[in-house]
């Protein structure tokens, strides 16, 4: 049989590009950052801390992990949530001082 009678073969495509694995804490940092801003500001400092650690690991070994964007977003949300938490502490502290002052003044007028 003559090789010219066979149809031409398609070239074999190279395997698809494989992404590096996701950083193990990428989703955790993102979820904690969102929770810290949306309604549970107590977890925001944890998102900030874990996000900073994960960013250092990703930046120290470029190409080893993916989802740096998720870690960065969670990190920034952790900072914002921590600022909100600090504001809440200051606001409740001021309310407590006003409340205590009112109680003292009421007790003094009796």
TrEMBL record:
Stretches the record annotates as Disordered: 1-20
**For bias kind Pro residues, which ranges apply?**
8-20
Q: Which residues cross the membrane?
A: 26-50, 71-104
Kindly provide the name given to this protein in its UniProt entry. Answer: DUF4190 domain-containing protein
Lineage of the organism = Bacteria, Bacillati, Actinomycetota, Actinomycetes, Micrococcales
Keywords assigned: Membrane, Transmembrane, Transmembrane helix
